């Protein structure tokens, strides 16, 4: 049974002159302990989806259609008091910049104890011991010393470990990590990713990893959703998508990885740019940047279809599959 089910979710922004849609018909499930990646360029809507799940959308943004079920509970129907029992306790979120999460005028320990005692009726001393234990779990050396320090006294990687420890304080069932390693160097990035994967495996926590980097995805996620202009354009097992990308946008993201270019060569890039919220083109939103776009792509929106064990929304793939099935039919007839 799914732990989280997102059904036909739509997020709009109500402006003075018009209402703009940012997320269109988003549906997916997350199983207990599963590690799911949501991939796309800036502006694809992936972070917005994370915020929608934990009810952190800011006005004028709002959920205009669809449902988000956690167990049997529809999160879109909850009030602020009910959300206090969900956010942080059942579903926790890690943000890209640790300093957004951490209060610069409080020590690490003060912030952790405050978070624990807001949800649990335990003494300050018991909360302190729990906090130090969680700091040790995220491989922070001299945890008792770090407990007494302020965020600015820690390195970027150490601050991100503290944020992960805070997210794991109340043993959530789902952890949403929004670009958790973007600001870190490659070595620290690898350590943080390994830590996240290890914690999820050991504690049975489901992970939603939001990122633009397929190199990150390959290390940690079992399943991947690829988003473009507010829609899911491809989904499937991570290894399947990396080894055999179907959608031209997914192919472009993978070709843009640094390791795909020879030494001394310019990095590959997808021509054009992600459309802004008020400029979503008709038909397939990717068609202005797609090397395979036809007239049909400009005016019709492709529906998701199965291609192998993945699903993809692309007319080129749809036509290729139709031709393959026709040829197989002819061979069988012969």
TrEMBL record:
Belongs to the ABC transporter superfamily. Its EC number is 7.4.2.9. It comes from the Bacteria. GO terms for biological process: peptide transport; transmembrane transport. It holds the Pfam family oligo_HPY. Keywords: ATP-binding, Cell membrane, Membrane, Nucleotide-binding, Transport. PROSITE patterns: ABC_TRANSPORTER_1 (PS00211), ABC_TRANSPORTER_2 (PS50893). Residues 6-254 form the ABC transporter domain. It is found in: Cell inner membrane. It comes from Maribrevibacterium harenarium. GO terms for molecular function: ATP binding; ATP hydrolysis activity. InterPro entries: AAA+_ATPase (IPR003593), ABC_Ni/Peptide_Import (IPR050388), ABC_transporter-like_ATP-bd (IPR003439), ABC_transporter-like_CS (IPR017871), Oligopep_ABC_C (IPR013563), P-loop_NTPase (IPR027417). This is ABC-type dipeptide transporter. It is a peripheral membrane protein.
């Amino acid at each position: 049974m799914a732990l989280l089910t997102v059904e036909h979710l739509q997020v709009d922004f109500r402006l003075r002159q018009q209402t703009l849609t940012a997320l269109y018909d988003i549906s997916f499930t997350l199983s207990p302990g599963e590690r799911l990646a949501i991939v796309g360029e800036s502006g694809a809507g992936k972070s917005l989806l994370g915020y929608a799940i934990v009810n952190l959308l800011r006005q004028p943004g709002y959920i205009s259609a669809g449902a988000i079920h956690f167990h049997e509970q529809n999160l879109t129907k909850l009030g602020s008091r009910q959300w206090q029992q969900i956010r942080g306790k059942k579903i926790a979120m890690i943000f890209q910049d640790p300093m957004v999460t951490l209060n610069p005028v409080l020590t690490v320990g003060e912030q952790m104890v405050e978070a624990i005692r807001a949800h649990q009726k335990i003494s300050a001393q018991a909360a302190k011991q729990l906090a130090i234990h969680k700091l040790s779990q995220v491989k922070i050396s001299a945890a008792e010393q770090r407990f007494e320090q302020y965020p600015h006294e820690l390195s970027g990687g150490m601050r991100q470990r503290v944020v992960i420890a805070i997210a794991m304080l109340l043993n959530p069932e789902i952890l949403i990590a929004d670009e958790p390693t973007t600001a870190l160097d490659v070595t620290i990035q690898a350590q943080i990713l390994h830590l996240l994967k290890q914690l999820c495996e050991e504690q049975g926590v489901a992970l939603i990893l939001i990122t633009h980097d397929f190199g990150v995805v390959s290390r940690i996620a079992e399943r991947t959703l690829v988003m473009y202009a507010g829609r899911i354009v491809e989904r499937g097992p991570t290894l399947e998508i990396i080894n055999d990308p179907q959608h031209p946008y997914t192919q472009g993201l993978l070709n843009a990885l640094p390791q795909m270019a020879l030494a001394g060569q310019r990095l590959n890039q997808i021509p054009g740019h992600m459309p802004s919220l008020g400029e979503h083109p008709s038909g397939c939103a990717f068609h202005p940047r797609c090397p395979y776009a036809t007239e049909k792509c400009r005016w019709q929106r492709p529906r998701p279809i199965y291609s192998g064990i993945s699903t993809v929304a692309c007319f080129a793939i749809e036509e290729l599959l139709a031709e393959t099935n026709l040829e197989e039919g002819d061979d069988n007839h012969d």
